Amino acid sequence: MTDEPTTTTGRPATLDEGSPAPAGAASVPAFATRGVTKRFPGVLANDHVSFEVMPGEIHALLGENGAGKTTLCNLLTGLYRPDDGYVEVGGAAMQFHSPRDSQQAGIFMVHQHFALVQSLSVAENVILGWSRRRGMWFSPRRVEREIGEIAEAFHMPIDPGAKIWQLSMGEQQRVEILKALYRGARTLILDEPTTVLTPQEVRQLFDTLEGMAADGTSVVFISHKMPEVLAVADRVTVLRGGRAMGTVQTADSDARSLAHLMVGRDVLLTRKESKAKINGGEDVLALSDVSARGDLGTPALTGVSLQVRAGEILGIAGVAGNGQRELAEVIAGERPSTAGTITIAGRPQHGTPWEAIDAGLGYVPEERMGVGVAPGLSIADNLILKSYRDGHGPILHARRAQQNATELIDRFDIVARGPKTLARELSGGNVQRLLLARELSGHAKVLVAASPTRGLDVAATESVRLLLTGSADRGVGVLLISEDLDEVLDLADRIAVMYRGRVVDVLDRDDADVDRIGLMMAGVTS
Question: Strands, E, within 66-143: which ranges?
């Protein structure tokens, strides 16, 4: 392995397959897959997938859940071996038997969940289990200096001596990138890299990626966020059903055309103008100076005051871990408050789930399986979990439950064999539709939806968003808690920004400024 990342300049005019690479790149791809196929029992995960990434190119990889992105990346990083086809690096066919083999070929991957030791420093994590130099002795100061030079060259401000636990999520991500660059990465694969970042950190990451590309490093950018893909990538390869549907230039594409390529039809990506535009509607959910503690007994919410009006969507924006989960649980009666008052549809709450349900609360929690639905119960049983006692006495009418499930399966487009299908057999999108069917089929006046589209593909996301906006149009007050700022901006009528358990400010959607919201998400209020 070489000590430094390889630097390459120039790009080719054309490629043999797909859309031409940006003009001027080297003629030999940094890496490519040639007819790669991977089978699992009953599943064809990758079906003769071929695509190329050029030196100094930022290449986005798009596809729905189950499209084959993860399998393809596992093949590129040596976790799997292809059944057919091969991976090519620098024009030479390669066989990777382990991640070490792919790293020796210069291919590294930064996963969504970082592999860092919290008690160690940045430099210690970068060299953990690996060294540029043979032998037992090395100079910690020299290592820190080298890491600092790489960080400065690629616009990644960070202290090599800082402990990981002292760093923000964005800074921890920089450590993972530094780890790859220090170890000689010539191709870097990033899996959903912006999920935990503020808008300012996203722009900083893009500056880093563009600097890496200018230095000749290839970047594979895996994301479901169309605006980000269009902003940073040179080209996009779309996977559908395990096959490569094509490679296109981002300069010649837009979000709608990419979504169509992903799902095979037009997709609604933004909210239509609401018929229930807020005209002084009544408050159906009100919080006044609410405080609560987290799981470890430390303050999680401090003096939170919010109002959600009938027919509006109030979005909660914020980086994960700033009190959003605790806010949803306190409203739902699943976590006790330590101060303040909560009112649902005019009825004061005293901290019990049944009281909130009786007042008209619908609740879609972050965790679908186990908390939202019972995975071992059927669709029919899950749909009546909150209503089986309503006016029917102690006897459960199975036929009535089956009929109710059949109607709701049709109404909410739940794809399943029938009412007796177990919840654990459903896809993520259909589990979310099941949850929304249960929460909205009664007399909900308020819906608290926590990360309702997390992990869903484009088609399922569209379906869930339409259910949320349709509920608001029918007069339900929706509290949308999402770490996806684009989603909040697309759907919300007003936006509340949370930081360290407090509401920093509440903005009308028409007045929302991404830079201002991003600063508030990072705790900057002036």
Answer: 84-89, 92-94, 107-110
Q: Is 382 helix (H, G, I), strand (E, B) or coil?
A: helix
d(CA 62, CA 244): 10
Determine the average pLDDT of the residues in 32-61: 90
* Nearest partner of 74 among 93, 98, 90, judged by Cα: 98
Residue 488 DSSP SS3: helix
Q: Which two tokens stand for residue 277?
A: 């535009």
Instruction: Give one word for 274, left, alpha or beta, with left for phi > 0 and alpha for psi -120 to 50.
Output: beta
Q: CA-to-CA distance for 190 and 186, rounded, in angstroms?
A: 13
Q: Which sign does the torsion angle of CA 225, 227, 231, 236 carry?
A: positive
Write the CA distances from 114 to 117, 118, 148, integer angstroms: 9, 10, 20
What tokens does 110 get?
A: 């930064």
400-431 pLDDT, tens digit each? 888 888 888 888 888 888 888 898 888 777 88
Q: What is the pLDDT of residues 459-498, one digit of tens each?
A: 777 888 888 898 899 899 999 998 888 888 889 999 999 9
| Helix pair angle (199-214, 514-521), 10° resolution | 100
- Side-chain-side CA neighbours of 214 within 13 Å: the count stands at 10
526 with 512: CB under 8 angstroms? no
Q: Which amino acid is at 223?
A: S
- Rounded Cα gap, residues 304 and 329, in angstroms: 14
* Burial environment of residue 280 by CB neighbours within 10 A (0 to 12, 13 to 18, 19 or more): exposed
Pairing of strands 283-293, 337-344: antiparallel
Classify 466 as helix, strand or coil. helix
Q: Which strands make up the sheet holding 235-240, listed edge to edge? A: 107-110, 187-191, 218-222, 58-63, 235-240, 243-249
Structure-token pair, residue 147: 């890491």
DSSP-based three-state secondary structure for 284 = strand
DSSP 483: S
Chain length of the chain: 526
Instruction: Give buried/exposed letters for 469-485 (b at 16+ CB in 10 A, else e).
Output: bebbeebbbbbbbbbbb
In the predicted model, what is the mean pLDDT of the chain? 82
Say whether pLDDT at 53 is over 80.
Answer: yes
pTM given for the model: 0.66
How many Cα atoms occupy the beta-carbon half-sphere of 246 within 13 Å? 13
Residues 6+ apart with CB under 8 A from 413: 433, 463
Greatest CA separation found in the chain?
Answer: 77
Question: Using the 8-state DSSP alphabet, how is residue 252 labeled?
Answer: G
Q: C-alpha angle 252/258/264, rounded to 5°?
A: 130
